[in-house]
Fold each of these.
Amino acid sequence: MSAIGISALKVLAALGLMLANGVVMIYMLRKVLGHLHIRLGPMHVGWKGTLQTVMDVLKLLTKEDITPRAVDRWLFRIAPAVVFIPSLMAYAALPFSDTWRVTNLDTGLLYTFAVLSLVPMGILMAGWASNNKWSLLGGMRAAAQQIAYEVPLLLSVLPIVMLVGSMNLGVIVEAQRGTVLAVIPRWFIMNPLFWPTFLLYSVSALIETNQTPFDMSEAESEIVAGFATEYSAMKFGLLFLSEFSNQFIVAALTVTLFFGGWTLPWIPEAVSNSFGPVVFMLKTYLVIAVMMWIRGTFPRVRIDQLMQLGWQRLIPISLVWIVFSGIVIKVWS
Amino acid sequence: MWGMGLINGLRISWRNMRRGPITVKYPYEKLTLPERARWAVAPKYFADGSPKCTACMTCVRTCPDHILDIYVTTAEDKTKHIDSFFYEIGACMMCGLCVESCPFDAILMSHDYELAVTDPADLSYDLLTDVDAATGARHKAEKAAAEPAPDTSTAGEVSVGE
């Protein structure tokens, strides 16, 4: 098959995974949040409500697509695509296993973060084009928050890059293979040097992906639905699909950077490699479950508190930590 | 220590998750109401199916919302015939004063709480239509017959309906 054909198939596979993730994660979110709040979540459509999200997708696809009269038509139409396409692009560098990946980028980590940083632009476009105060507020918040938090997000993972000496996500996973003293996995989360890194990364990642308690740009209780207020039907669907997809990507990055990616400790390489993608997905969904647990527990922070946390705490702390861990890595090696 | 509140919050929601849902799946599962729950007013009947109401009008006078009304035709021998026992449930506040005031224990607050209707006209209806009212003598006879056994009828019993 030609190179273009293979690439097209890879894109389609990524798209399929993204859509499937969306459906599964929305169902999971409803169930997890429901049980955290001592409720049941969806129960009626299908066994235990399993078909509820499928029905919701059908509903979104068949709903009337309303374009309000006062919107900026061009921007209004492009914005969902600008939000959606970077989310899809971000799947490119994720290593699902040794061989299962769209591309093997040497700058995989940087590429993923760079692509994800295009999302707030789309959100800002959506907010501006809607010609609606709530939407504009949501868009401005997205710009303020997500662009501000890209700095600590990227800074926070630099110690790992320094230790591994590569931005290739596959190489980062390979560096975590095996065990220390035959018991402790060689995952970076087990290394005390990376505990603050993990903390900084997880906070910035939650903020970067717009997860409650940091979902300032949607904030239903404050600004209706933020940037998505004027959107309906599948345009709305795309906006939210990309949000869930970003959550998946950040969870996958967490697994890749801190929890050994597709590798399993204690099991011979040849065995664990054969079901690498399964391990990777399981780990990722476990991380997603923890993110949902956080989402179901904490109330939303205020936007000024959020900005203060970012500029006054996270960025200086991550800078200091980069210097410190750089020295430690240099001295030890 | 700073941050312990966050951990504690996570702990609490985790505990909630493990408690399992306490939801009652309403249309399929229903809670049993307390015995003295007060919902729609309903008439009571003798064992033979004739209403216990004597059309004495006490409930009509008691009702603070003026939503009960009994239209009666009195025959020449002074027996009463209830043309209709009107009840406007849309304005009823389920206070139960009519039931308390009834000297013949002829109405009750039923446990029928699914009161939503699709037509506003259904918010008022007749509890009894075109029946002979019970007489005082009938009540006396029934009471005498039931005397040896303790009275088992309570307000909590669900009525047969309108």
Amino acid sequence: MPVIETQKLTKFYGKSRGIEDLDLTVEEGEIFGFIGPNGAGKSTTIRTLLNFIFPSSGKATIFGMDCVKESTRIKAVTGYVPGEINYYRETRVRDLLNYAASFHENIDRSYLDRLCEEFEIEVDKRIGNLSLGNKKKVAIAQALMHKPRLLILDEPANGLDPLIQSRLFSRLTEVNQEGTTVLLSSHNLSEVQRFCHRVGIIREGTIIKVSQVDELLGAASRRIIVKSQDDLTNSLQELGIKEIEAAGGTYVFIFNGHIDQMVKTLARHSIDDLRIEEPSLEEQFMHYYEREEERR
Amino acid sequence: MNMYGFETRRLLKGLLTWSVVVTVLLVLFMAFFPSMAESGLADLTKDKLDALPPAVLEAFGLSVMTDFSDLLQYYAYIAQYILMAAAIYALTLGASALIKEESEGTIEFLYAQPISRLEITTRKLLSIVTILWAFNIVLFLASVLLLHAFREPGYEYLPLTLAMFSGMLAAQMVFLAAGFALSSVLPRYSNPSTVGLGLFFVTYLLGAIAAINERLEWLKYLSPFHYVQPTSVLASNGAIEQVYLLIMFLVTIAALLFAYWRYPRKDLLV
């Protein structure tokens, strides 16, 4: 049985679209990456699943329970890390965690303590005095403490320093191996590529593609900036790159072939500077969408 | 589950502020009573007041007010201002109950917990009712202490004070419920204090207009404040008109039912 299932799920805010006819299935035991540009409908989907908002039409279930009618039962087995953390500012972290714990039965205190240690949570501070990253850590402990069977994470790594980020992902991997299903919404393709089993891409309110991560890996593209006295145009075209921005000896382009091939081709010229970057999400998606259209 | 406790604790600071401010006002006003009673100041004010047109007196709730040298009548006059403050507090409490957490975004925390919207509504309602009652108990005790301190030996004040307070509390419950109903529909960026002040003064003005203009007398039904004005309650020997009691009861129930119907269906918009 799928853990999350939506059928033609639609949410309109007045006349503006949130999501439209969204069909999404997340299977038990997987880490499902949910990616798409801003405003594509990731948050709307999550907020509908958690019944913060009500669907305009369509249906959503979690563990077979209706997201509107059985929301309370769903939340007993679901943990949620919001994208933006707005907890009671005047409350101390310890009190907030205790308060959250009071909504659940059988909280394993030692597990909660371990989480606080692992994520270096300062339990005596007031929420209002915490930085974005530190608030996020509280939210993570809050979402994990009752050992939920489903975790819904909205940009969980945002604002965390690299060390805590890696602890978060190893914790996620661990709970996943123990059977927890994870829905991970993210901007960061490489994060999704590393940790997710399957990926759903959402655009303009609809899922346009669900694929195994390995499939998507082929789409890994890089933004390349080369500076050279030579004219690189021919060599670049040889590599199959069509769109090149060139100005004053600097060439900027998106490359998604084998990096080895590119380096060897460029090595024929004298190069002044070479930068290889992660393309912005926008560029990656543009690229991705273009390839999709070409295939058709 | 300790949501009720958590909610109530969050309101304690506001309760403390309101209690202190209103009690201090009460003490200050009452401190003038001995000079009012003794120095003939009352006669003086009375002459001045009699010179004012009756309509103006009505508007200030002074028409039935005759004798400033009588302790309870003096107290009832002051209690009008206490009632105004209490009504505004009740409205603000009600209006903030659901909206404030939405505008601050903290409601997401509750929505992610295994607790239904109906339970959230109930616990929030219980906690604001608790706070409002606590506020009234503080005011009642302060009033009784002050009345006791200023009374002549043998002066009976308790039953009528209790009657005035019951009326005031009933009106506050109407305002609380109305604010609560508003809280369930208002968009998240509304300011509950502005809503509270605005709504109170609109109803109050309607009541005042009703008092000075006979043709608009029916407007009085729109102002719970005027139903239970302490001066009138005192003048009628502690009685409040049945119609008013019925209206207050029905409006309170209707407003709460509305909130219970509406809030569980409300989208939490970003």
